[in-house]
Amino acid sequence: MSKVLVSEFAVAGKEVQRTYAIHGGLIPPFTMTCNGERYIMPGWYKLKANEATPDIKDIAYYPYKPKKANQPNLPNIKSNKVYKVKSSKGNSFYEVQLNTSGSLECSCPGYGFRRKCRHVTELMQTSI
After folding, report:
1. Which of 63, 87, 99, 110 could form a disulfide with 117 if both were Cys (CB 3.0 to 4.6 A apart)?
2. Angstrom distance (rounded) from CA 44 to CA 46
3. Contact indicator for 122, 86 with CB cutoff of 8 Å
4. How high is the pLDDT of residue 99?
5. What are the residue ranges spanned by the domains of the chain?
6. Category of 102 on φ-ψ map: left (φ > 0), alpha (ψ -120 to 50) or beta
7. How is 27-74 classified by DSSP, letter by letter?
């Protein structure tokens, strides 16, 4: 869920200056009017009646970034290379490669069911 953070800066004898920041969410900031009330979206921050509508460029935006899964460091595995690993019977080979998310995937049926297999484990152990 998005949060709107408001910072106020006041100097004696001058108008209070407000800055806004949107943390989280996938939608960039925008302003909206609903039932005569003005809001900074996403986050539904209601602007006061006497408050000027901020310029969108002045609203800081920090989009949601998913946490990376605990993936092992794979220093010697190249992203554009396909590795051939021998099957357990030794009569065929399976292809192991890095996918777009940075984890290894295998063409064997076991990986298709369990999302892990001995071919990926073998490649990780031999590359480190």
Report:
1. 110
2. 6
3. no
4. 81
5. 3-62, 83-127
6. left
7. SPPEEEEETTEEEEETTTEEPPTTSPPPPGGGSEEE---PPPP-PPP-
pLDDT, one tens digit per residue, over 27-67 is 889 999 999 999 988 888 899 888 888 888 889 998 888 76
- Residue 128 half-sphere exposure, CB side, CA atoms within 13 Å? 9
Interacting residues of 74 by C-beta distance below 8 A, sequence separation 6+: 98, 104, 124, 127, 128
Distance, in Å, from the CA atom of 16 to the CA atom of 12, rounded to the nearest integer, reads 9
Nearest to 126 by CA among 69, 99, 71, 86: 86
Extract the tokens encoding 97: 């490669």
